Amino acid sequence: MVSMVANRIIVVIFKLNFTNSCICSNLVSINVNQHNSLQMRFLKLILGVVMMIIGLCSCKSTQPIRQAERTLKGNWTLTNVSYSRPGKFNVKLYNDAGSDCFQNSTWTFVPNNNTGTYQFTNSGCDTTLKNVKWTIPIPDGDSYSFMMKPLTAKKKSIEGNKGFRTGLQMLTENTMVWSQKLQFEGQPFVITMNFSKNQ
């Protein structure tokens, strides 16, 4: 996500007992048919239960994602970019521009097709509208992330099939916080991006 230089510096078993040989074949036929019918019903019941469990688990795991996508929908402003360490750093975000350009940039997210845009507003920055494809992956644990892939004006991928993953630290109706953790000069370095939703 970031290139950086310091200025000061993720089966049933069944038995057939026959007492009359003359009706043996009929009994076998009837019991086998009954057994097959019961076995099929049993298998269908088990299959139905398994499918229901899978469906419930799937809904449970994706429900927070769907809610997050609905909350994300709309227009946002990136109000602040900050660092976990003091000093002045030349940080290039998303292989695009420095943090000074991302500051006060405007963002739009559309969950119907997981597309969006962002645009710089500061003077001296390229104000061309940038297109992105985004998603919120199902997390392995409790840590959510936000994945974004830059697109051309014709909605073609710029980086091939590559994208950028950022930590999604907080998302409410009015506030969103992204964070990127990396190592710099052998020590942890965290970039935090604070968004405010436009009313």
Model description:
This protein has 2 domains: 21-64; 73-197, Lipocalin, CATH 2.40.128. The longest helix has 49 residues, at 24-72. A hairpin with a 2-residue loop joins strand 10 and strand 11 (187-197). By secondary structure, it is α+β, with helices and mostly antiparallel strands. The chain has an 8-stranded antiparallel barrel. Strands 1-3-4 form a 3-stranded antiparallel beta sheet. It contains 2 helices and 11 strands, in the order E-H-E-E-E-H-E-E-E-E-E-E-E.
Estimated helix fraction: 25-40%
Q: Span between N and C termini?
A: 29 Å
CATH architecture of the largest domain: Beta Barrel
Which superfamily, in CATH terms, is the homologous superfamily of the largest domain? Domain of unknown function DUF4822
What is the assembly state of the chains in this entry?
Answer: single chain
What's a quick, concise take on this entry?
By secondary structure, this protein is α+β, with helices and mostly antiparallel strands. The protein has 2 helices and 11 strands; from the N terminus they run βαβββαβββββββ.
Key attributes of the depicted protein:
Lipocalin; eight-stranded antiparallel beta barrel; disordered N terminus; single chain; 27% helix; 37% strand; 2 helices; three-stranded antiparallel β-sheet; 199 residues; alpha+beta; 2 domains
